[in-house]
Each structure stands twice: as C-alpha cells, then as structure tokens.
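Notebook, bench 3.
Goal today: get a predicted structure for ABC transporter permease from Phyllobacterium pellucidum so we can plan the truncation constructs. The sequence was checked against the plasmid map this morning, with no discrepancies at the termini. Length recorded as 305 residues. Pasting the sequence as submitted so the record is complete.
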Amino acid sequence: MTVPAETIVAMPPERGRKRNWLQSESATGLGLISPTLIYALIFLVVPILLVIANSFWTQHYLVVDRTFTLENYRIAVTDPIYRDLLMRSLWISLLVSFFTVVLAYPIAFFISFHGGRHKGLWLFLITIPFWTSYLLRVMSWKVILGYNGVLNATLMGLGITDQPSDAFLYNTSAVVITLTHAWATFAVLPIFVSLEKIDRTLIEAATDLGDGPVRRFLRITLPLSAPGIISAVLIVMIPTVGDFVTPKLVGGKDGVMIANAIQAQFGKAANWPLGAALSVTTMAVVTAIAAAVVLTIRTAARRIR
C-alpha cells in the first residue's frame, strides 16, 4: 500500500527517540557566547562588585571593618573638596569631548567625502600618534605647557609673567589641550564610520531640489551622522573623567581631577573604602551625564531634520 506524501510529512517523530540537548541550537549558541560571558563576568562584573562591596566598609589603618555603613558615600557627596573635584572633572571631560568632536568632524568629513581611493591611507596617517606611548605624548605636552615649560619660559622672557608660579597654562587649560590631542583620533573613527553609511543619493536629491552646501549639511549630513557623534562623545568623555596621569603631569594644583583623589585613597592614604565610594559615585554621575548628553544630541538631530 502506498502512503501519500502529505501523510509522511505530517507523521510525528518516533516517540521513543529522545533529542540530545547538546546538539540543539540553544546549546550551540550558549557554547559560542560562554567564553565571552565568562570573560566579562571575571574581568568586568566581578571587579565592579568588589568595588561596590568595599564602598560600604570602613578602614582603620590596616584593619577593614566590614560592618555596613554609608559614611563613605556621605563624605564623597558632602565633602566640598571631593565635590569640587568631581564637578571640575565633569567640566573638563565635557570640554574635551566638545573640542575633540569639533576638531575630529572636519577630518572625518574630508576623508569620507573627499578621500577617494586614499581613504585607507588617510585613516592610517591619523593613527601615527598612537605609535608612541600615551605617557610620552603627555610628557611632550608637559615640556610645552608645564610649570617650567617652553610656553611659560617664553612668556617670562617677554616680560608677560615674572615667575613660573604665574604659569599661563599650567592648570585646567593644559589638561584640556593635552586630553583633546590624546583622544582626537578616537573621535575621528566613529564619526567617519557614521558618515560612510550616509546614502549619497540623499545629498544628490537635495542638490537637485536646490539646497546649497550648508543646507545639505545641516539637514542631511549632520543629523544622519549623529550616531557617530554620540559614539565619539561617549568614547572621549567617559575615560577622560578617570584620567589621573595627565592632570598630575600638566595640570598643577588647579588641574587636579577626581581620579587623582581616588588614586590617592588607594595609594598613600590607604583608605580603600573611601576610594571605592568615590569611584562608585563618579560612575553613577558620569552615567547620568552621559545619558543626558546622548538624549540632547538625539533631540537636536531630530529637530534639525
């Protein structure tokens, strides 16, 4: 007797056969993400959890009291020294993010729209500063902007300042300049990728409809490149808040940031719980500021369009 094909397709699998879960798609997917998940848990999540746990303890010289307390957070929030350092750090990071994007956008725009077949070469050239150590680049700026640097020596020679203590740029300005130079390339790359994704036919259509270069840029190019701008701002702003090398070398007493205070608590001050509380507070504030910046840029991009 011949069984119709429709009947064969509709026939259920044998009841006695058990499917091996290790051969399923779920097991395969879990096996692919497991190494990455384990890596993230060990090197990202666990350290953060340890820092958070430390922030609720108290340290008395070499003895750590693990009794739950919020005293460290009270100090981190109410102490005027730490509060001012955090506000200064946020202000510096926002300034660095702004100047970095302003400098990086024209470079990314030129490479994307006028680089032609040499785009790869241009991208290669802007990475040349990273062939040297970050510390060496900071030290180079210290030679120029430092307490006894070239700029201040020149100003003293011209009679503008009387002594190095009147240093013209040995302060927050020196930190902003140095960090802007150090992070400029990191802002170019995401903006370039965003510009590359823009459909050029949209610009051609705007040209056919009579839009000039400025109007095309404001209505098409700039709004569509907003994701790259957001990425650049986040890439630059978040790490600069936690930078303590640059302020220490070129900032002087007026350029110290919150990361220097945190580093001191984990170093000579030997007060890890307070340092952990400062770290957690900084992370929370930076997260809120970053979310506000992203929302602002997205809203501005929609209104422009």
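The chain has one domain: 74-304. Residues 74-304 form a domain with the MetI-like fold fold (CATH 1.10.3720.10).
Flagging this for group meeting.
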